[in-house]
Design goal:
about 75% helix; mainly alpha; about 325 residues; 15 helices
Length: about 325
């Protein structure tokens, strides 16, 4: 449907040729904008109805009384279905600390939340298929789960800013549960306006970059830069992803084109994860609540994990 709409608009209405670089780029842009924004709106609305009673405060209360292992698993699972962005990192971190939730569990949640969520999963399914989507989700969950264990070994409590321990939070956000179908509909629609309003620019930028690569960058050039599947190419992909700032949804169109141009799956996965969970803006936001040593441990673990994930899947690419 979206491909048909884009073809009619670009090739029939505008009269462009599919053999032209501009025609190919514009077709990709129109098709992905309509597809991703439509899916984005639908999935956020449906999940908003289901999540009407789920707030950051309820998340921390849900984790408070669990055992260390079960709370860690639940934190990773909740992080995957609660798309709190990096701007929520500080209040979530403070709320979890005040609730007495171990820092390892907290960091597992903070890793999973921006990197994996149901919106990104649905769009990934429509763009790259279920096998690659499953790879991304499983590796992301493993990275988040192991991250909590690794960070705990460094005794991170000593590197949390002192004011965090003194804060006695009331509520991170309002926790009034919407009552009735109309109230839940209004809540879900507010979620659509808020989340789409926050990330639409990143989606358009990501699709625009993907369209330019798709239409104007030769396949052999991309292959020479990042297509050799070497550890060096994975390292470069992670380093390139760090200064970028995008929601996981916004980077999907770029990943789609890189895969189509022949860039190995491991390199693309490492790049996506770095953009979603290791971006420089998120590190600067977290710096408000943790000191540089803990931030360095957190960022170092993520960078090493993403590089290892990329190398592993590049090595396995013949059987994926």
């Amino acid at each position: 449907m979206f491909d048909t709409l884009a073809s009619w608009l670009v090739y029939d209405l505008f009269g462009l040729s599919s053999g032209q670089a501009f025609g190919q780029a514009l077709h990709f842009f129109v098709m992905d904008v309509t597809k991703i924004l439509a899916l984005l709106t639908l999935v956020i609305y449906v999940m908003g109805l289901l999540r009407a009673a789920l707030t950051p405060e309820r998340v921390r209360e849900f984790l408070r009384q669990r055992s260390r292992f079960s709370s860690r698993v639940l934190a990773v699972g909740l992080g995957a279905v609660t798309p709190f962005c990096s701007c929520s990192s500080v209040p979530l971190f403070i709320g979890f600390v005040e609730a007495g939730i171990p820092l390892g569990v907290t960091f597992s949640f903070l890793i999973a939340s921006p990197m994996i969520n149901e919106v990104a999963v649905v769009i990934l399914l429509s763009v790259i298929g279920w096998k690659l989507t499953l790879l991304y989700v499983v590796t992301g969950l493993v990275v988040a789960l192991m991250g909590g264990y690794v960070i705990e070994r460094f005794r991170p409590e000593r590197w949390v800013e002192s004011y965090v321990w003194d804060i006695r939070m009331g509520q991170v956000v309002g926790s009034n549960t919407p009552q009735g179908l109309m109230a839940r509909h209004q809540y879900a629609w507010r979620q659509v306006r808020e989340i789409v309003g926050r990330i639409w620019k990143f989606v358009l930028i990501g699709i625009g970059i993907g369209a330019l690569i798709h239409g104007y960058v030769p396949t052999d050039f991309v292959g020479r830069i990042a297509g050799d599947a070497s550890p060096w190419s994975v390292l470069v992909a992670v380093l390139v992803g760090i200064p970028l700032y995008s929601d996981a949804v916004g980077i999907i169109p770029v990943a789609e084109v890189l895969l189509a141009k022949g860039v190995p799956i491991g390199t693309v996965l490492a790049f996506m994860m770095a953009v979603a969970a290791l971006s420089l803006p998120e590190m600067l936001i977290l710096r408000k609540v943790v000191q540089w040593p803990l931030l360095s441990v957190f960022a170092g673990y993520l960078a090493l994990a993403f590089i290892l994930v990329g190398i592993l899947f590049n090595f396995m690419r013949g059987v994926i």
